[in-house]
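TL;DR need structure tokens for one chain.
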Amino acid sequence: MIRRVFLVFAAALALILAPSVAMAYNAPGFTCTVSDATPAAGVPMTVVCSGAQAGEVLTLTATRNPASTFGTKTFTATANASGVATFTLTLTPAGDYSLVVKGANGAVISTQTVKVLGVGTAAAPGQLGRTGFDGMPLAVGGGILVLAGAGAVLISRRRRSAQVPA
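>> reply
TL;DR here they are.
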């Protein structure tokens, strides 16, 4: 029995941690960063890649998952004298995107995952998005009804005990 519990726990932990393993890849010598990993739809973001040759043309491909609903957008940027290439892109449909940066020779330099949020769902940095409703008025109303019911029971019991049988 304990063995089964342990195996179920281990399988659940593996399932939870598995998707987070392959979130980003940078080729040796290259560094690519995304300005915002969860931008709102229609808000521009930048991808900055360093480590390229001066004047090298890098290609960024943004593919929505699943690709059939959006297709692929391709962006190009030329590395400056310091070997830094900057892409500015705006993704409008909400969803998960794979950003793949390739060098001039076609080798994959970086792979990033970005989640584009729907319009009006962007959360402040460090805060979670707000969903649902405020249940405090409902809880206060329920509490008042419980107190009123308890008071009615107490009053009816006192009246019964105060009545003298004839």
